[in-house]
Amino acid sequence: MKAVLYICHGSRSVEGQKEAIAFVERLSSSISIPIQHVCFLELCEPNIVTGVERCVHDGATTILAIPLLLLSANHAKRDIPYELEKAKEMFPSLTIIYGKPFGVQHDIISALSATIEQADAIVLVGRGSSDTEAQADFRQIAHLLQHETNVPVYPCYLAAAVPSFSDVITSLAQTTEHKRVAVVPYILFFGQLLDYIHQTLQANQASEVSFTLYPPIRTYDVLDRLVEQQVKEWG
């Protein structure tokens, strides 16, 4: 019997955990696979091994493990496969097929573009990674978004890479080259990151620049369709 295991990053924030679970409940409702479970790579439970155990307990003999990550960085390339291999050793007869992060998707970029209104600049905010491939993908997304909106896009990160979100916001507030700036989080779930984003924007609201914060990527229906497509390709 088939199962789908959705693997989220995980968050210390209860609110972040709730966001992830609600997102999985939404997208899983349109998928006909009989067994579906959610798990987390780190910071909260259930972990990946427990997620696999729950699928097996429900009768799964084959699992499609889908990493609900926007870009392919170290978590997707190393950490999740390591945990799945541990689970496979526990269940030698179990088949585990590893899916893929969303990656650079024109449909996501189009959905982003359609939501941005009356902005003369866009700050595209990534979670951040030391992985050079993930950084290159993020720069490509920024380039494609700029091409689609015909508005300057400033990519930045909340951690682990430069330029930082706070540096870009402070620079834009001081130069006042742009008056209406859309702050677009290229992030699935806010969790504790939302407080930091709000604090940074509040610290710069006294300037002549108006910053408008947009919702995270998980609010876009296009993600549901991309997950459905991955499940259909699996067969």
TrEMBL record:
InterPro entries to which the protein is assigned, alphabetical: CbiX-like, Sirohydro_Cobaltochel/CbiX
Record-listed E.C. numbers: 4.99.1.4
Keyword Lyase attached: yes
Superkingdom of origin organism: Bacteria
Keywords for the protein's UniProt record, in alphabetical order: Lyase, Metal-binding
Top EC group: lyase
Annotated protein name in UniProt: Sirohydrochlorin ferrochelatase
Highest classification ranks of the organism: Bacteria, Bacillati, Bacillota, Bacilli, Bacillales
